[in-house]
Specification:
- By secondary structure, the protein is of the alpha/beta class.
- The chain has helices spanning 7-10, 13-26, 31-50, 52-56, 59-63, 112-128, 149-163, 182-196, 216-234, 251-262, 285-297, 304-308, 339-347, 363-371, 379-382, 384-399, 405-426, 435-453, and strands at 68-77, 83-94, 100-106, 135-140, 172-175, 243-246, 266-272, 275-278, 313-316, 327-329, 352-354, 375-377, 428-429, 432-433.
- It has a seven-stranded mixed beta sheet, sandwiched between helices. The chain has a five-stranded mixed beta sheet with strand order 1-2-4-3-5, sandwiched between helices. A two-stranded antiparallel ribbon has the order 13-14.
- The two termini are 30 Å apart.
- The protein binds NADPH dihydro-nicotinamide-adenine-dinucleotide phosphate and (2Z)-2-iminopentanedioic acid.
Length: 457
């Protein structure tokens, strides 16, 4: 296998730069999208150059152009009676291997560039799951922070008044992401049913009483930890007794922490966008229950943890990567772990970095981790458990039945193991497993072959 620092890869460098220049010209100012495409193109370009069928079909150019993008206004009324207008998008990136599938994000930092990067990565991630799912992403620049439940409900309802025209169980199936959890999916699904007068699996992450799947809520965090455990098992090690630093305190972070604790590891940090808490005594299951209640029910700040547990300290405005750990799990947002953070982690002897979030490690950070020859698991492999469980929710909805917790969890485990094994197969560089390379190639081949089969469309 090759990467850009290999001699073979040097011969494709001009092709890569020419491709990137074209992409940047066609998508000006979309920095996150450029970053996500470059990350894949660096892995895949040598492979494309080696295979005339992909090169001649302009497969990379076609894969980086979304099928379509819907942009719309969401008007709603706040609790003071003021009229608010937000912008929302649905980026339907590729349905080459299945109906569009991917989350909705509500956050003030949401832009078209962010959603295009997420939609692009989703195509490869969904391919890796082995399930028949295409890739999409959507969301809005709506800021849920400080909004009342009624305001969130009115926003979700108004968004669905437009979105319902563009989704369907065989067309496009949205789910949650940052700022969108079971509560928001409930509000959106309620409005969908009212508008369409039909009950169908058009959204995943639904509540358990109306079509949701057991383990969907836990699946991204659990899956990420299963993936890290698989990597460690591959060299005869495990998470038992490992010290783990986690960023974020939302859906992915809390369930990653829960699974680490179940597997015998010690979680020492959690965070939110204001700062992080460090608890050297370890965040055990009882402390995690407090965090879940704090974040999911009361929607408070992580700083409150230190008022309850005296063993912890709060670090305002800082990220947790300065804390010595064996395993780091960035589970908050994109570009939250940069080159300096990677150097600090490596200096402290980090062995595993598993991306629970999408694109949390910057390009420089990735290069340093790979040069350091540690286990680096890219998000499109490590956090694929969430969308995989969404795919299982779709299957249960189509069958009109519900599988048990053990059944879904067992399927999730086996999907994560299969993704791990595909990365090993495609990312073996003389004994060192480059999981980034493995994930990109394995995800690419399935989508590319489907596109070739369809001819010029
Ligand atoms: P949540 O909204 O549940 O939690 C997000 C967490 O990250 C919160 O603690 C939030 O802090 C923090 N955060 C958000 N934005 C920033 C920021 N700009 N800087 C610092 N911290 C931030 O989202 P999820 O847990 O669902 O998503 C987390 C990540 O995982 C995202 O990258 C998402 O794309 C990815 N992901 C999610 C999946 C899912 O199934 N939900 C599946 C696969 C990946 P605060 O409360 O202060 O906003
Ligand atoms: O980034 C992701 O994979 C998600 N937010 C989950 C998408 C899904 O459809 O479950």
């Amino acid at each position: 296998m090759t990467n850009v620092s290999d001699p073979i890869a040097k011969t494709v460098q001009p092709e890569l730069e020419q491709f990137m220049q074209g992409l940047i010209k066609r998508n000006p100012g979309e920095m996150e999208f450029h970053q996500a495409v470059r990350e894949v193109a660096e892995s895949v370009m040598p492979f494309v150059m080696d295979h005339a069928k992909y090169r001649d079909a302009q497969i990379l150019e076609r894969m980086t152009e979304p099928d379509r993008i819907v942009i719309f206004r969401v008007t709603w009324e706040d609790d003071q009676g003021s009229i608010r207008a937000n912008r929302a998008w649905r980026v339907q990136f590729s349905n080459a291997i299945g109906a569009y599938k991917g989350g909705l994000r509500f956050h003030p930092t949401v832009t078209l560039s962010v959603l295009k990067f997420l939609g692009f990565e989703q195509v490869f991630k969904n391919s890796l799951t082995g399930l028949p799912m295409g890739g999409a992403k959507g969301g809005s620049n709506f800021n849920p922070r400080g909004k009342s439940e009624r305001e969130v409900m009115r926003f979700c309802q108004s968004l669905m008044v437009e979105l319902h025209r563009h989704i369907g169980e065989d067309t496009d199936v949205p789910a949650g992401d940052i700022g969108v959890g079971t509560r928001e999916i409930g509000f959106m699904y309620g409005m969908y049913k009212r508008l369409e007068n039909r009950v169908a699996g058009v959204l995943t992450g639904k509540g358990l009483t109306f079509g949701g799947s057991l383990v969907r809520m836990e699946a991204t965090g659990y899956g990420c930890v299963y993936f890290c455990e698989n990597m460690l098992n591959h060299r005869g090690d495990s998470l038992e007794s490992k010290t783990v630093a986690i960023s974020g305190s939302g859906n992915v972070a809390t369930y990653a922490a829960e699974k680490v604790v179940q597997l015998g590891g010690k979680v020492v940090t959690l965070a939110d966008s204001d700062g992080f808490i460090h608890d050297p005594a370890g965040i055990d299951e009882q402390k995690l229950e407090f965090v879940k209640e704090l974040k999911e029910v009361r929607r408070g700040r992580i700083q409150e943890y230190t008022e309850r547990f005296a063993s912890a300290t709060y670090h305002e405005g800082k990220r947790p990567w300065g804390v010595a750990c064996d395993v780091a799990l960035p589970c908050a947002t994109q570009n939250e772990l940069d080159g300096d953070d990677a150097r600090t982690l490596l200096a402290h002897g980090v062995q595993v970095v598993g991306e629970g979030a999408n694109m949390p490690v910057t390009p420089e950070g990735i290069r340093l981790l790979l040069d350091g020859k540690i286990f680096y698991a890219p998000g499109k492999a490590a956090n694929a458990g969430g969308v995989a469980a969404s795919g299982l929710e779709q299957s249960q909805n189509a069958l009109r039945l519900s599988w048990s917790r053990d059944e879904v969890d067992e399927r999730l485990r086996s999907i994560m193991r299969e993704i791990h094994d595909k990365c090993v197969e495609h990312g073996n560089e003389n004994g060192f497993i480059n999981y980034q390379q493995g994930a990109n190639i394995a995800g690419f081949v399935k989508v590319a072959d489907a596109m070739l089969a369809y001819g010029v469309v």
